[in-house]
Amino acid sequence: MSIGISDVTPFDQLINEKQTLLQKGYDECDKLIEEYKNGNLALKAGCNAEQTLEAKLNSELSKIRDEAG
Fold first, then answer.
1. What is the mean pLDDT of residues 2-19?
2. Could you say which of 10, 41, 62, 67 would form a disulfide bridge with 35 (CB–CB 3.0 to 4.6 Å)?
3. What is the pTM of this model?
């Protein structure tokens, strides 16, 4: 039994879905950054603005990674 590169190369639909997922996630991250810059970011309990932004960005990027996987 053998396996070739064509057996493990993602097909176009998968590549497009991944790109859509990434773009949605990056748009959400950009939105969070803009809220932070404008002072409109809703703070998490016990966190300042920077900590809240970091937590929300990490959460969003983790979701992207999990869904893409």
1. 85
2. 41
3. 0.78
